[in-house]
Amino acid sequence: MIRVGGYQGVLNNSIMAVFAIVVGLSSAQADDLTQCSQSFYGGVYPEFTNTKLDKNTQALCMDGFAVMYSGVSRTPLWSAEHLDRRRLQQAKTIDREDSFHEESRLPKSMRASLSDYSGSGYDRGHLAPNANMANRSQQYDSFSLANIAPQSPRNNRYIWRNIESATRYLTQQYGEVYTITGVAFTGKKTKQLAKRVLVPSHFFKAVYIPATNQAGVYYAPNDESERIEVISVDELTAKVGIDVLPVLDRQTKAQAFALPLKAGESADLPDQPVEEPTWLLFVLAIIEWLLTQLQA
C-alpha cells in the first residue's frame, strides 16, 4: 500500500522534473539566438508586441541567418540576416541547388512537410533567400521548410524577387544592411495547406542601413495583385505585432526610408560630390590660361 505522503513526494518530484525540462528547453532556445547574434543589429532580436504570436515558437540558428519558427502556423514568423558586400560577392559564385527539406531539429508535430505544399497552388517562398547564401551549407539551410512559407506565385516570382534584388543593391551601395523578413496573418479567415500550414496574408522585409541610420519596410499582400508599399518600422509593429528592430531609436523607427522597388532604382541616397576627372581639370586649366593670354 502506497502512503499518501510518499505519493505526494513522488508527484512533487515529477512536477519539478518536468519544470526543469521546460526551463531547460527555454534556455536552449534563448541560447540559440545568442549563438547567432551576428544576424541581428546590435545583437538584439525582434520582440513580440502581440504575445499571442509567441505561442509554441522555436528559435533556430541557421548557417548565415536566424529564424523564429511557429508550430502554430508551421511557418517561420521571421528570418534575420546580416548582409555585406563580401558575403554577396561569395554568393554570386554559388549556383542554385534546390534541396527543400523538413527541419529535423523541430518536433514532428511542429514541422511542415513537403507533402503539405504538393499541389497547393502556392510557391515554397524563402524568407532568407537562397541568392544571399555564400556557401553550400548556408544554401542548404535556406531550403529548410523552417525558412519557407506558402507564397503567391506572382508575388514570389516578380514582386519579391525584385525587392530581394533591391536589398542586395542597397548592400552594395552602403556596404552592409540588416534585414528581417517575415509573414503576417491579418485576415479574418486564414487559408491552410493540407489543414496544417497556415497561408500568410502578407509578407514583409524590414531593411536597416547602419551607415545612414535609416530603416524602411517592404509590405505586400500575399496575392497576385503585385501591390507593395513601403512603411516604417513602427507601422509594421502596429500591423503585425512584432517589433523587428527594437534597438533602433524612436525617430528611425517612425520614419520610413524610401526603399527602391528595383535594383538600381534611385532611393534617397546621400548626395555625393561629383569629382571631375583629372584630365578634364587639366584641359580647363589650359583653356583658362589661354583666355588670360588673349585678354592681356
From TrEMBL:
Please state what the protein is called.
Endonuclease
Give the residue spans that cross the bilayer.
none
InterPro entries per UniProt: DNA/RNA_endonuclease_AS, DNA/RNA_non-sp_Endonuclease_sf, Endo_G_ENPP1-like_dom, ENPP1-3/EXOG-like_nuc-like, His-Me_finger_sf, Non-specific_endonuclease
**Cofactor(s) the record lists:** Mg(2+)
Q: Per UniProt, what is one GO molecular function of this protein?
A: endonuclease activity
Report the source organism.
Psychrobacter halodurans
Q: Which SUPFAM superfamilies match?
A: His-Me finger endonucleases
Annotated EC: 3.1.30.-
Is Magnesium among this UniProt entry's keywords? yes
Q: Which family does it belong to?
A: Belongs to the DNA/RNA non-specific endonuclease family.
Residues the entry annotates as binding Mg(2+) = N156
**Pfam families recorded:** Endonuclease_NS (PF01223)
Q: Would the keyword Metal-binding turn up in this protein's UniProt record? A: yes
Instruction: Spell out the catalytic residues.
Output: H126 (proton acceptor)
Q: ENPP1-3/EXOG-like endonuclease/phosphodiesterase domain location, by residue? A: 62-251
Q: Which UniProt keywords apply?
A: Endonuclease, Hydrolase, Magnesium, Metal-binding, Nuclease
Domain DNA/RNA non-specific endonuclease/pyrophosphatase/phosphodiesterase: where?
61-251
